[in-house]
């Protein structure tokens, strides 16, 4: 499970930001359903996070940051073989400050695996690995390896697999190199990223294969999906004979009597919202079953607010395998004390210099009017938390509009 993700100097994020999934211990709301206890009772983690912000604030750039880290861990060894001209330009840094152009971008995750906490991260500049590190904590934090360019420090007692460091190229993550050999500690970190899914909910192409694969192999999923979709009057969902197309079956009635069934192509005949839901439910089922970490950007797009609420409820009340669900959203319906704890709601906003900032609702204290019984939605739409700015109807704007 994820404990913390932090990064800096990436797209609209200039300074270091940190998303933390540890609970605020003084908060007592929804403890049994929204949190999970780990490390023999020493630590409580959140099952989900909702990130809100205005248009252009940086929410999508946040999900792009975890995607960038994920892709580099998986692909840096393979991509190192590409010709230099195929790598494109290095322009992922914060571009509204000249100093940032000369600084590396940094990414780090902390997570728990079998009662051991791992902390892994790296800095990268112009596709070259500037630094890289891996630590683990059982009773105390122990370094496994650190790296500065191609100078390595290896804890040979705790990390004997690190002796292969001399074979690593400057533009390859050491972790990615070691994962090829199924090394013990490196594989645990690599497996964390294998269990990470990040999608843009405006585009189903990233997840459509999950639903298809489950329909081929998992009979329990077929039944689960059919029951979930009954409210849409869909009798069942299945694959075409060539396993290429998703088909929905709808009942046909005459004089209120069932006379047969009609097949619809999901991609061609179903609504955009239905199509998204069918594909999304496959990934949600897979996440809950296998205890994965699921990031969704623009979660509420194409979905009714009541449906979004029910999907969030799945991760809170029926999450038995340590899955975590992190969304970015605009829909204020979810900003409700009955749905989220105060420490589960985060915001992203840009300052006057174009820098995106990430901060939790828990930063706002009771003295500022935030209590467990507060109306989160009203306070957010009133811009009490920031991150909700919109077009300003200034006098100049109004006068220009009148002249259109």
Q: SSE layout and pairings?
A:
Blueprint: E1 2-8, E2 17-20, H1 31-34, E3 35-38, E4 43-46, E5 48-53, H2 59-79, E6 105-113, E7 116-125, E8 128-137, E9 141-148, E10 151-154, H3 174-179, H4 184-194, E11 196-200, H5 208-217, H6 219-228, E12 234-239, E13 246-254, E14 257-265, H7 266-269, H8 272-290, E15 293-297, H9 305-317, E16 324-329, E17 345-350, E18 356-360, H10 376-381, H11 395-402
Parallel strand pairs: 5-16, 5-17, 11-15, 15-16
Antiparallel strand pairs: 1-2, 1-6, 3-4, 6-7, 7-8, 8-9, 9-10, 12-13, 13-14, 17-18
Helix pairs in contact: 5-8
Structural class, please?
Answer: alpha+beta
Q: Give the strand order of the largest sheet, numbering strands 1, 2, ... along the chain.
A: 2-1-6-7-8-9-10
Q: Give start-end ranges of low-pLDDT stretches.
A: none
Oligomeric category = single chain
N-end to C-end Cα span:
54 Å
Helix percentage:
25-40%
Counting DSSP E segments of at least 2 residues, the number of strands comes to 18
Order of helices and strands: EEHEEEHEEEEEHHEHHEEEHHEHEEEHH
Gross morphology: globular
**Main sheet overview:** 7 strands, antiparallel
Beta-strand residue fraction: 25-35%
Calculate Rg over CA atoms: 23 Å
Average residue pLDDT: 90
Number of helices: 11
Keywords:
6-stranded mixed β-sheet; single chain; alpha+beta; 404 residues
What does this structure look like?
This protein is α+β, with helices and mostly antiparallel strands and 404 residues long. The protein is 28% helix and 29% strand. It has helices at residues 31-34, 59-79, 174-179, 184-194, 208-217, 219-228, 266-269, 272-290, 305-317, 376-381, 395-402; strands at residues 2-8, 17-20, 35-38, 43-46, 48-53, 105-113, 116-125, 128-137, 141-148, 151-154, 196-200, 234-239, 246-254, 257-265, 293-297, 324-329, 345-350, 356-360. Strands 2-1-6-7-8-9-10 form a 7-stranded antiparallel beta sheet. It is globular, with a radius of gyration of 23 Å. The N and C termini lie far apart (54 Å). The relative contact order is 0.15.
């Amino acid at each position: 499970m994820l404990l913390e993700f932090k990064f800096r100097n990436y797209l609209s994020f200039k300074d270091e930001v940190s998303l933390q999934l540890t609970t605020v211990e003084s908060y007592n709301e929804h403890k049994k359903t929204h949190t999970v206890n780990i490390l023999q009772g020493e630590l409580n983690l959140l099952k989900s996070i909702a990130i809100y912000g205005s248009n252009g604030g940086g929410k999508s750039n946040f999900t792009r940051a975890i995607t960038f880290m994920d892709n580099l861990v998986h692909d840096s060894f393979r991509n190192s073989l590409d010709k230099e001209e195929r790598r494109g330009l290095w322009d992922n840094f914060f571009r509204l400050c000249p100093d940032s152009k000369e600084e590396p971008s940094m990414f780090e995750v902390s997570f728990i695996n079998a009662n051991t906490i791992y902390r892994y991260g790296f800095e990268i500049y112009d596709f070259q690995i500037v630094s890289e590190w891996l630590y683990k904590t059982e009773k105390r934090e122990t370094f496994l390896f650190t790296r500065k360019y191609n100078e390595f420090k290896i804890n040979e007692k705790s990390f004997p697999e690190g002796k292969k460091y001399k074979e690593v190229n400057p533009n390859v993550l050491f972790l990615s190199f070691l994962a090829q050999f199924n090394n013990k500690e490196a594989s645990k970190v690599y497996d964390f990223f294998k269990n990470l899914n990040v999608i843009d909910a405006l585009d189903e192409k990233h997840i459509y294969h999950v639903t298809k694969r489950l329909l081929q192999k998992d009979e329990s999923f077929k039944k689960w999906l059919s029951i979930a979709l009954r409210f849409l009057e869909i009798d069942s969902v299945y694959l075409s004979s060539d396993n290429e197309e998703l088909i929905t079956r709808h009942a046909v009635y005459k004089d209120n009597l069932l006379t047969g069934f009609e097949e619809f192509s999901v991609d061609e005949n179903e609504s955009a919202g239905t199509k998204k839901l069918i594909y999304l439910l496959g990934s949600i089922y897979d996440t809950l079953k296998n205890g994965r970490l699921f990031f969704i950007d623009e979660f509420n797009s194409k979905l009714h607010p009541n449906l979004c609420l029910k999907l969030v409820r799945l991760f809170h009340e029926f999450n038995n395998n340590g899955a975590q669900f992190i969304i970015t959203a605009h829909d204020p319906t979810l900003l409700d004390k009955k749905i989220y704890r105060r420490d589960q709601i985060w915001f992203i906003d840009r300052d006057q210099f174009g820098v995106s900032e990430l901060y939790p609702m828990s930063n706002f204290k009771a003295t500022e009017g935030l209590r467990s019984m507060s109306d989160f939605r009203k306070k957010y739409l009133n811009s009490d938390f920031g991150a909700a700015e919109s077009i300003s109807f200034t006098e100049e704007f109004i006068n220009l509009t009148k002249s259109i």
